[in-house]
Structure formats: C-alpha cells, structure tokens
C-alpha cells in the first residue's frame, strides 16, 4: 500500500490533502484516471482478487496433512494438539471433499469430537457429532460418539437412541458387539435426565425499551421521565466486523468468545464461528447442501425415525437470513483477509445498501447511504490520501461480486470515502469483559484490573445519534451483536441522553479526555465534566501539599490550564459553588472561595487550600525512582508469583507516593491494587483485603460510589472476603448487585457470570 501511495504525483496528493467533501468527485476522478494507467495498481488488485493467489481458499491436501498430524497426536494421547490439528483441517477442508468414501468434514468432526471428549468437553463433543450427522446421517461412528457424549452429560435417553441407531447402521460384527455392550451398560443407568441445553447468551428477558422511539427532530432528548436502570434503546447493527486480532478468539458473527468446537466458514478459511447458526447468519453455505444421500435403516419405530430427522437437521435455513454480510467476501479471494477492518466494514455497508434497494426494485442510488455525520474536513492529509486509495481498491474488489451493479466511477468512490469518514466518527466498539467466565471459585487474577476489550466494530443507525458526555447518564453494552442502552440515573423529561465514547471523569483527567476525543472523533468536548470544575479532575493527578496537616491539592501546569479555561465563564462565588456542587471542594481548594479572581489560584505548584509552593520537579524525580520498584512488581505479577522482597520494596515505594501525591490521586489506587494482587498470590489474604479496600476508597472519590468501576472493584473485594469466610461478603456482594443492576438491569448475570457464584456463596455465610 505504501508503494502505491508513493507512486501518486505530488500535485494530486496536494489536491487530496486540501480537499473538502465538495471536492471528492474531482479528486476521486483524478485518482481513478491515474490508477487506470498504473501497472502497480493493477497488479495489486490482481493479488487481492485472484483466487489462485489467495491463501484463504480451501485445500484438501492441506486438510489431509493436518488430519494425519491430528491422528498421530491422538494415538500418542496428546489430545490438545490433536484438537488443534483437527480444527485446522476443518478450516481447510472443501465441503464436498471425500475421505475413504465419506465426507471429509464429517470424518474430521467425529475425530475432533473424540479429542474433545477425552479433554472433558462433553457438550462440545456432542455438537461436533451432530454436525457430522447433518453431513452424513448414516455414519455409525458418529452416532456412537454422540452416544458417548450424551452419556457423559447424563442424557441417558438420547444416548440410548444414539446407540440404537448406530447398532442398526453398523455392519461389522466387532462394531455391533461394542455397541451392544455400551447399550447394556446404559440400560442399567437412569433414564430420567433430559438433554443438556446450552444457556443462551442473549436477551431472553423480553425487556422492551421504555422509550419507543426518538424522532429525528428531537435527537436523543427524552420527552418523558426515565427511571434509573430503565432500558432506553435496543438495536442490532446495520453492519459489523470482527477485528483482525480477534478472528482466532471470537465468533465472526455474534462476537462471543469461541468455544473449543469452532465452526469454520464453508467457503473460505478466514472466519470462525461459535455455531452453525452464526455461520449461516453471516452468509455461509448451508450444511445440508452437502448432505450425503441416505435411507433410514429398516424396522425403525416412528419415534426413532423422528429422532434421526431432528438430530440430522441443522435447525436453521438460509431463507431466514435477512442479509448475508460475509457472502460477498467469501469467493476465495485475499482482500477480506488483508484490508483494514473499517474498509471491510464500509464494503459491507455498501453491499447491504445495494441489496436492499434491489429487493425493493429500485435502481441503486449511492448518495447518502448512511444518514450520519462525517469528519472528512477535519482529517489529516495522510488520512485523506489513505481513504482515497482504499476506496478505489475496495471498489475494484467488490466488483468481483457486484460488477453489473457497481461501476468503477468517481461517484461511488467518493461515497466510499464519505462512508469511511462516517465510520471513523460513528462506529461503536463492541466490547467484551476481559474476564467473563468465572468458573474458578476464587481466581486471584480477579484482583487485577477488569478491562473492556474491543472485539468488533459496528455501525448502529440510531445508536450513533447519542451524543457523548464524560459524565454520561446512560450506559451502552452488548449482548452478542445487539446494542443495549440503559439509564444510569433518573433522567427528567427534556434532558438529553448521553453516552461515553471512551474516557470518563475519574478514568482520565480533562486534558487527556479532550485530546482523545478530538483526535478520535474530531470534536472538542464541552460536556459538564469538561466544562465545569469537578473534584475528580483536581484529584486525578494531583500532588500532596508539603505543609503538615494540609489536605489541599496541588496541580501541575496541564491541569491548571484546563481548570482556568473552565473558570473563565464564572462570574461570582455563588456561581462557582453551584458549579462545583461538592462539599469536599472547600477542604482541598478552599482558596477558591476566598478570591474574586479564581484563575489566580490555579498556578502550577501552589496548594489550592493554603497557597504553599511545592517543588513539583523534585517530587516527580522522587516519584520516578519509586516507580521502578512498582514496575518490577507489575512485571512479576504478569509472569509468576512475585517474591516477598519485591512486595516489601513496593510497600516502601507506595509510602513515598503517599507523601508526594494527593491521597486521592489515581496512581495510588492503581498501586494499592497491584499490591493487593501480590499479597493474594502469596496467600496473605488479610493484607490483600486491606490494600484492596484502600484502592476502592480512592476510586469512590474519583468516580462516585455507584459507578460501574466501583462494582468491578467490589467483585475483587468480595472474592477476597469470601475466601476468608467473612460475613461482610454478603454486604459487598449486595452493593455489586445494586451497581450492576443500575448499568445492566436484568442482564447483569449474563454480563458477569462470576456474580452468580458470588451471590450463591455469600448467601451461605449469612
């Protein structure tokens, strides 16, 4: 790509760098004309679109080689590597390939099911057997393996049915004897258990938003009062794409974490799915398309025939799929694997737009595909050039699928450029919690920071209209690909509903938040958190006054600059008091109430309470030295159990931080959390609890007592208390439940499965 950009004439680069949205037709036309006569461009398009040159196509030889390696590992008892090789073979195998007169995919699914069963993944083994049977319904070994999985899951009736079918199909005497022996054992066991059912990881509560709709003339302003924790908005994406770094770990359709029994695309080797349903909804081919011809064994009861039909049916049809977002990428070409995620997302939006218009019998129109804002005029010169180049390349790639309906011209190229700039400022990061499974009763990693990890990028037609605030009154989260927005406070009629696009008050200071939002979304934040003085921004990176017994905060030059900006519009003490709206402010910044020129108080290095001058340069040098020991502890926590000497050094370092940084500085909270985790790792639980509580006390000042961050920290504290058998676990767990219900409503247990364990175990201590 860099070679292609460097080949563009400087005069054209300059025109693109200086262009506005109104110039896009002209700049796109010039770039198209230049590329049409550039051999390098045509070679790049061939590399991206020629199936013979792609590395993402199906390959029977590669699949057979991986299968042989899997067989070798299985024979040695190395079931983990056998599982890995069988999954690799499934990804490469053509759906119509055969192996010893059986469908190769069916054989691979059965082989992987055996590895999964050996590793204790019984439900996953069951699903793989069912997939094999959809492809090859009279596969005796698949029915037998399915019986073994059902038996391990105590689904004895289903296991008996599976063995009965297997016995009818099996032709060898030795095979029949093995099945009869297994069947005899099963008949002696309980038949009362029903089949295991996976718990859905979706919205099963049926909860409906309290706000039916937002009119375009109203924006996202509510016309009625909205109670705390009410569901405001629910929406599936117009288009979405998994991030490249998550392709091997998360489902390419629902974005949930991949199970051990991944399902590959039937036509290419790029995406992985968590189920056949997700594979089909994304635009993959139906399994049943490759089902081998079969006849039912003779003398089967009607009940057993129906059982076979149920097991060998995929349960979902492509006719129910409204828009197959991956299908146009699934032609064995290389471009979907190498182009950036936002470019692939733009392609999905464009293809969906064309297909929707075709279904309505309308000639495709390419202007105004998305009714969303764009920031093309604020983009850097490099970004403008990049968008132009990628738009032309994407259009050439899409022509392989929609040649007749997608001409190569400046109109469509310029619209893709607009789409890319709309995606830049309107797409939402679909996130998952870094820890979500909580299967361990007490995993001390729970004391580490809980993170939201971005796994996908999506455009939500209505969700994009919610404006940002660093102190939002609504919270967005995702179940599968569905966006949910919930009120985190009581919102009165006439108020605007606002989300956080990223950093919030307490998380970063004002200067960091504003810089991030301007760089990422091209606007200067003027929300209440950025326009008004708040305690959190003073504390966040504040220093300790060097005068004994003074609790005042000392700010550096960066914080002082932004606070002065906020104070420009204040006209008197009453206005200041109304704006601050926090009783604690007089304790840390009492000079504000003693001056008529408030900005003079905010000089770097001066205490906002007593006016003493602090040497911030000397303090920072001492802090930097102390941070060396803390960094060593963090590195040790990431790799192994830290030695006691490192913990002792970190304790000395945090004492230094406490003397130089304000008691509510966020850095102290972070180090307290590190030390709590370290004490947990060596079994010093009481010390871990003390430091965890100290961290939470600081974070409550920065975020407020009911913020979701506090809920995450209280989970850590409750885990520690639970291991100590403390009855106070129940009180903290109840606080967690209240906070999470505020942010997630009835979905709290789905978002945080570990919470269910905490509630159950804490209840036993009462």
Topology:
Elements: H1 2-7, H2 10-17, H3 24-36, H4 39-49, H5 60-75, H6 79-92, E1 98-99, E2 102-103, H7 104-118, H8 122-135, H9 140-152, H10 156-169, H11 173-187, E3 231-235, E4 239-242, E5 263-264, E6 272-273, H12 276-281, H13 302-311, H14 335-338, H15 341-359, H16 381-402, H17 410-426, E7 428-433, E8 452-459, E9 467-468, E10 474-479, E11 482-487, E12 498-499, H18 510-521, H19 528-531, H20 535-540, E13 543-544, E14 553-554, H21 557-567, H22 573-580, H23 585-588, H24 616-639, H25 644-660, H26 666-681, H27 685-703, H28 708-724, H29 728-744, H30 748-751, H31 753-765
Parallel strand pairs: 9-12
Antiparallel strand pairs: 1-2, 3-11, 4-8, 5-6, 7-8, 10-11, 13-14
Helix pairs in contact: 2-16, 3-17, 5-6, 6-7, 7-8, 7-9, 8-9, 9-10, 10-11, 15-16, 15-17, 16-17, 24-25, 24-26, 25-26, 26-27, 27-28, 28-29, 28-31, 29-31
Overview of this protein structure:
A hairpin with a 7-residue loop joins strand 5 and strand 6 (272-273). The protein has 31 helices and 14 strands. Helix 16 packs across helix 17 and helix 29 (728-744) runs antiparallel to helix 31 (753-765). Helix content is 51%, strand content 7%. Residues 187-222 are annotated as: Disordered. Residues 199-210 have a biased composition (Basic and acidic residues).
């Amino acid at each position: 790509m860099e070679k292609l950009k460097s080949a563009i004439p400087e005069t054209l680069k300059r025109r693109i760098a200086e262009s506005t949205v109104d110039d896009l037709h002209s700049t796109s036309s010039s770039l198209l004309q230049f590329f049409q006569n550039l051999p390098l461009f045509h070679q790049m398009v061939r590399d991206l679109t020629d199936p013979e040159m792609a590395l993402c196509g199906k390959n029977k030889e590669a699949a057979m080689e991986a299968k042989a390696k899997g067989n070798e590992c299985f024979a040695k008892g190395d079931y983990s590597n056998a599982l890995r090789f069988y999954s690799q073979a499934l990804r490469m195998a053509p759906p119509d390939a055969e192996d010893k007169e059986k469908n190769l995919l069916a054989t691979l699914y059965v082989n992987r099911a055996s590895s999964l069963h050996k590793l204790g993944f019984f439900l996953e083994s069951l699903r793989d057997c069912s997939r094999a049977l959809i492809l090859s319904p009279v596969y005796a070994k698949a029915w037998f393996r399915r019986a073994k999985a059902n038996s391990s899951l105590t689904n004895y009736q289903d296991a008996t049915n599976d063995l009965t079918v297997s016995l009818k199909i099996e032709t060898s005497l030795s095979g029949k004897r093995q099945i009869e022996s297994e069947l005899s054992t099963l008949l002696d066991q309980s038949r009362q258990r029903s089949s295991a059912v996976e718990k859905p990881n979706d919205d099963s509560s049926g909860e409906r938003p309290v706000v039916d709709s937002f009119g375009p003339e109203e924006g996202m302003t509510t016309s009625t009062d909205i109670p705390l924790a009410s569901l405001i908005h629910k929406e599936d994406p117009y288009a979405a794409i998994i991030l490249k770094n998550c392709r091997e770990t998360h489902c390419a359709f629902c974005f949930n974490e991949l199970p051990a029994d991944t399902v590959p695309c039937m036509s290419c080797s790029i995406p992985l799915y968590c189920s056949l349903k997700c594979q089909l909804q994304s635009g993959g081919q139906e399994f049943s398309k490759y089902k081998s011809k079969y006849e039912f064994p003779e003398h089967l009861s009607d009940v057993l025939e129906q059982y076979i039909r149920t097991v060998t049916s995929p349960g979902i049809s492509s006719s129910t799929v409204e828009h197959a977002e991956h299908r146009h990428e699934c032609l064995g070409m290389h471009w979907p694997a190498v182009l950036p995620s936002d470019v692939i997302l733009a392609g999905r939006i464009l293809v969906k737009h064309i297909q929707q218009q075709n279904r309505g019998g309308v000639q495709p129109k390419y202007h105004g595909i998305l009714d969303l804002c764009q920031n093309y005029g604020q983009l850097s010169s490099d970004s403008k050039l990049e968008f132009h180049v990628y738009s032309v390349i994407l259009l050439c790639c899409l022509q392989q699928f929609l040649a007749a309906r997608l001409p190569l011209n400046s109109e469509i190229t310029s619209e893709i450029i607009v789409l890319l700039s709309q995606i830049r400022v309107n797409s939402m990061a679909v996130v998952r919690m870094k820890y979500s499974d909580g299967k361990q009763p007490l995993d001390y990693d729970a004391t580490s920071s809980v993170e939201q990890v971005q796994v996908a990028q999506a455009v939500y037609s209505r969700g994009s209209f919610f404006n940002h605030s660093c102190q939002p009154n609504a919270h967005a989260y995702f179940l599968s690909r569905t966006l949910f927005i919930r009120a985190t406070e009581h919102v009165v009629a006439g108020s605007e509903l606002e989300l956080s696009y990223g950093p919030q008050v307490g998380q970063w200071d004002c200067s960091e938040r504003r810089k991030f939002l301007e760089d990422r979304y091209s606007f200067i934040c003027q929300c209440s958190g950025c326009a008004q003085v708040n305690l959190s921004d003073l504390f966040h990176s504040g220093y300790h006054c060097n005068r004994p017994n003074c609790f005042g905060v000392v700010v550096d030059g960066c914080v002082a600059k932004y606070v002065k900006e906020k104070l420009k519009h204040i006209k008197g003490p009453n206005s200041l008091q109304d704006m601050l709206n926090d009783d604690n402010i007089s304790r840390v910044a009492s000079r504000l109430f003693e001056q008529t020129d408030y900005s003079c108080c905010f000089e770097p290095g001066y205490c906002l309470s007593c006016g003493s001058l602090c040497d911030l340069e000397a303090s920072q040098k001492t802090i930097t030295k102390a941070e060396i020991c803390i960094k060593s502890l963090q590195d040790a926590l990431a790799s192994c159990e830290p030695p006691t000497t490192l913990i002792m050094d970190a304790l000395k370092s945090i004492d230094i931080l406490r003397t130089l940084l304000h008691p509510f500085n966020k850095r102290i909270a972070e180090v307290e959390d590190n030390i709590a985790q370290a004490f947990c790792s060596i079994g010093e639980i009481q010390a871990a609890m003390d430091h965890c509580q100290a961290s939470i006390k600081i974070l409550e000042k920065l975020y407020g007592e009911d913020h979701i961050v506090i809920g995450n920290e209280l989970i850590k504290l409750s885990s520690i208390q639970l291991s100590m058998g403390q009855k106070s676990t129940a009180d903290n767990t109840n606080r967690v439940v209240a906070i999470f219900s505020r942010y997630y409503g009835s979905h709290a247990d789905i978002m945080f499965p570990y919470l269910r364990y905490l509630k159950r175990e804490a209840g036993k201590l009462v």
